[in-house]
Amino acid sequence: MKELQQTINNSSDKIRVRDLQLVTRSAIGRMKEGEEEKTKTYSALVWTDKAIQKEDIAFLDDIKELKLDQKTPLRVLHRRPLAVRCRIIHTMKSEYIDEHHFRLHLKTQAGTYIKEFVHGDFGRTKPNIGSLLNRTADILELDVESVDVDWPPALDN
Asked: Has keyword Isomerase (predicted)?
């Protein structure tokens, strides 16, 4: 495993692999038990139909522990059961780009549908960025910055 990890790390300067290891089925089960407690960090490029000022989006930064009700998104309804899930946006940080664009950095509960949080999915996610800003919003880019979970266990190198 160490050899494979080194080969991967030597092949690119874009990614790094650490703690590569074989895990047992029971270890995977233990990881899944904690899914609700995991957090993820995202960066999203957001477009709005109406012009925005820096002040219009600055209030997003002050919102903490925002509770969402998310119906199963239309885009995944063919493979997931219809349900309403309560998810939490822990923090938001906005970066104004121009009058129709801003970058939104989010720390969320795992399982939060970010695209739907931005555009609302025809009212299926409440609240959403569009409703919070009182305008139509859509997502142009979405990047996962980190998955915050202590698994697999760190290895001695």
From this structure: yes
How many Å is the maximal CA-CA distance in the chain? 54
Q: Cα(89)–Cα(61) distance, rounded to whole angstroms?
A: 11
Q: Are the beta carbons of 153 and 128 closer than 8 angstroms? A: no
Cα–Cα distance between 118 and 57 in angstroms, integer?
Answer: 13
pTM above 0.85, yes or no: no
Q: Could you read off the pLDDT of 93-109 as tens digits, one per residue?
A: 999 999 999 999 999 99
| Burial zone of 123 (CB within 10 Å; 0-12 exposed, 13-18 middle, 19+ buried) | exposed
Position 26 scores a pLDDT of 80
Which tokens sit at 109? Answer: 């509960």
Regarding predicted confidence, which is higher, 156 or 97?
97
Domains of the chain and any CATH numbers: 1-33 (no CATH), 36-148 (3.30.70.3190)
Asked if 45 and 103 count as a contact pair (C-beta separation under 8 A), the reply is yes
What is the C-alpha separation between 75 and 139, in angstroms, rounded? Answer: 14
Say which residue the tokens 């104004």 belong to: 96
Q: Which residues pair with 144 in a beta bridge?
A: 42
* 2 vs 17: CA distance, rounded Å: 10
Q: Does residue 152 have a cis peptide bond before it, meaning omega lies within 30 degrees of 0?
A: yes
